[in-house]
Amino acid sequence: MVDASPQLKPVWRAPDEAPFIQIENVSKDFDGYLAVNSVNLDIYKEELFAILGGSGCGKTTLLRMLAGFETPSSGRILIDGVDMTNVPPYERPVNMMFQSYALFPHMTVEKNVSYGLVKEGIDKQELGSRVSDILELVQMTEYARRKPNQLSGGQRQRVALARALVKKPKVLLLDEPLAALDKKLREHTQFELMNIQEQTGVTFIVVTHDQDEAMILSSRIAVMQNGAVIQSGTPKEIYEYPLNRYVANFFGTINLFEGNVSKLSDKELELECSETGTTIKAMNVLETILGARLSVAVRPEKISISKEKPVGESISVIRGVVWDLGYHGNLSIYRVKTSSGKIIQVSAQNRVRSAERVLEWDEEVFLCWDTQSSVVLTE
Amino acid sequence: MLGHAKQCRADRVNTNLPQQRTLDILWRRFAILVPYLWLLIFFLAPFAIIFKISFANPIVALPPFTPLFEVAENKDISFYFTLDNYRFLLEDNLYWMSYLKSLKIAFVSTCLCLLIGYPMAYAIARASPGWRNIFLFLIILPFWTSFLLRVYAWMGMLSTYGLINNSLIAIGIIDQPLKLLYTDFAVYIGIVYSYLPFMILPLYAILEKLDFDLHEAAADLGARPFVIFRDITLPLSLPGIIAGSLLVFIPALGEFVIPSLLGGLDSLMIGRTLYDEFFGNRDWPLSAAVATILLLILILPMMLFQHYQARESQDPL
Which pTM does this prediction carry? Predict the structure, then answer.
């Protein structure tokens, strides 16, 4: 019933397309506590945009300002070119799916879903067909006469989604849509959400604290910390080119190297890393000077591990011994210790099936990765 | 009630269960037994006595009514049973008028308490936790003073040259003092003032638990503030409205002190009639009949409430 591998939409589109939602320099001050700090975001039509961050990072406040439950202290929000900053929630072309689902306990599923349409005052025939269409879309037709307390968590989630979608909003806001579901149901529902988003063509904005969820679901992600957006981009951009340690650590494991710039050219730079006693090569992506202190991040899967010393032009090489290794079926995780004591994590795909391990504990190995895999962190 | 209590005692005999479990069950039975015993001793037994007296004839004796039966020396049992008291209640306008007046005053007071109490309960439920406790404390504060004293205080305020009249004259709104005391108006003030907390507290308990997300969800779906109140808040707070209304209506119906102190001669409520019949005329059987009818009037809304609650627990909100 649900396509397990829906087509990911093209990651990015025409560069001249006008943004559908513009968040312009929006701040929210709660009695001296700056919950949202001058956020600028452009979100495009039919995107599934994720706002990601830990608790208290301001992501929910930002969402509530989009819904109209909070007014920005400064800045403005435009949806489809119309300034929404002072429009009350009941007049916005926006609907929200609450984390608690907020289903009306005294109304049946059908009444819950039709509530928004009744308030719009559309005629009975259209109302009936739209409600039954949306219930079919979320596969809740047979539960139409039940009350929310007679439904499971997953069913309530579908009703909440249907109730928000039935009004055909320009933007659907989802506050931690999957947080209340158990793990298995969550994975299933992720794909379902993506399917429904594609079928309806509504712009989704999802708030989540789960980086995997954000990566799988969204076309683009904005990572928030302390009320500010610290990085936004496609999941790939954020994973491959994190701007700082926070983002780098938020998405999976990463190895960080600190050092001073020892060589600088137009395209490349070299870092004298005191921790490993080697030089690390990276692309020169930002304006820096000789001697400046920088951090470079390398993902474990970008590092190759071998017993022979690799040779090549634009690679960084570090020597160490295998300190720890873990077999994960499809890949092996090696933790390699350098002579200075730094632990570097490497993951290698187990392409060849062999009875014996190629590398064993305490074996001397060389780690190497190419210059393009080194990510210079700006902060 | 009695039947249930007996059954509880019978259940104790079952000793097949492990000891701890038996103890638990015993304790639970005991906990249930206490309120039933309380009702039995302090409510049902006195009512049975009153019910019995209502079928007797008044006589000048001690006690001032005929016994239900008498055993003569020849062991003949003679019953004295009369419906005269009830017949008299039906025939005499005074009683009907008192009942109707009481119903009217209790009903209007309940509506007024609801109109005043609902916004107050709502405001308290929406206040910050610190303010909430202060407000609740203020609501309960009057109970720390004697009820009678507070009604006397109202007499002082409402009298011809009391606080209210003097202030109004001083401001220049009126030239002559208004007749406030000994009117229905004063009775309403007294009842609404005294019973308002009983309306606010159960309403607060319900409104405080109400999930505010539901308001936002309704607003998000296009409902304006008043519509949200009508569609969401009001239906979900119905149990509180019913509980509060009963807590005001029932005591207000039988209220004696407030109408006798603040009311005029025409505010003859049934509590006052009952008092006069009992202490003035010493007609115990007739006053017992008046009390029995009053109880019937009260039991009716209570049974409705019970019915409503039973339905709620079957299909919880």
Answer: 0.78
